[in-house]
Each structure stands twice: as structure tokens, then as C-alpha cells.
Amino acid sequence: YRTRTDYRMAPILDDNVHNPPIQFHPGSLSYAGSGPDSRSTEVFIVMPGTRQEQLDYFGMNSWETPFGIIDNVHETVVKDWFAYGDMPPWGEGPDPQKMYMEDGYEYLKREFPRMDYIQECVVVEVSPQQDEL
Q1: What residues are paired with 31 via a beta bridge?
Q2: Cα separation, 116 vs 94, whole angstroms
Q3: Measured CA distances, 5 to 21, 33, 41, 73 (Å)
Q4: Residue-wise pLDDT tens digits, 42-95
Q5: Strands of 43-45's sheet, edge to edge?
């Protein structure tokens, strides 16, 4: 509890706003934020089947910057993940206030038993092709 609270209380500063915004696509990974300089330890994956109007909305705020992508997301296990959706009132997902309480993990396990967790993340350096520069 103490470690995750410490990380949550040390927010990641926003990125500069890009004009035009960096496009989100199914498979994009981004930190979740609720306002300026509010990013911490929560990330989200843009799921396959996300409506275009939602994709167009992502990236309009300075705390919404994709930092990674799951290649060929439609061909991975991500396409089969169960999704509770966004937090209330926009979806059926976890209540952040309850999630950050001392028994937050127990709350998640009890109320969202089908929730998936990232167990490991590997950084892969990819050099851009000449035609991508």
C-alpha cells in the first residue's frame, strides 16, 4: 500500500501538446489522467473495436500521450480481454477512490474478478525505417 501510494502521489508531468495531436489507434498504450499533471501509475490500452469518435477525442489533453503500441492488437490475446470499461459514471470500471484505499487490491479482486493485470513489460528498441522519418 505504501509503495503504490508513494508512486501515485508523485505524478508524471504532462507532455507538450502536439499540434496536430498524436493519433491513438487500437493497441495504443497511454497513461490515464484526470487533469493537468495527474498521471501516475495507471495505464490504459485502446481496445480493438474502439469507435472512431473516441479515437479522435483521445490526445486532445496534455496528459493524453500514447507511449507505446501493441502491434497487430487484433491478432493478440488483448482482443479477448474482458473490459469493464471506464470508471463511473462513464463506465462500469473501478471507482478510483476505492481502488486507492488500503484494501484497494482486495476491492479490485472482489468486485472485478475478471480484471487483467500487466505482469511484465519489456522495452524493445525499434529503429525507424528510412521511409518513416
Answers
A1: 43
A2: 13
A3: 31, 16, 10, 31
A4: 888 888 888 898 888 888 888 888 888 888 888 887 777 767 877 788 788 889
A5: 43-45, 28-31, 66-69
Going by C-alpha positions, the residue among 77, 67, 71 that lies closest to residue 29 is 67
| Residues 60-71 as b or e (16 or more Cβ within 10 Å = b) | ebbbbbbeeebe
Cα pseudo-dihedral 4, 24, 109, 94, rounded to 10: 90
User: Would you give the end-to-end CA distance of the chain in angstroms?
Assistant: 44
- Give yes or no for a contact between 11 and 39, defined as CB atoms under 8 angstroms apart: yes
- pTM for the whole thing? 0.71
pLDDT class of 130 with cuts at 50, 70, 90: low
CA–CA distance, 92 with 111 (Å, rounded to integer) = 11
Q: Where are the beta strands (DSSP E) in the chain?
A: 28-31, 43-45, 66-69
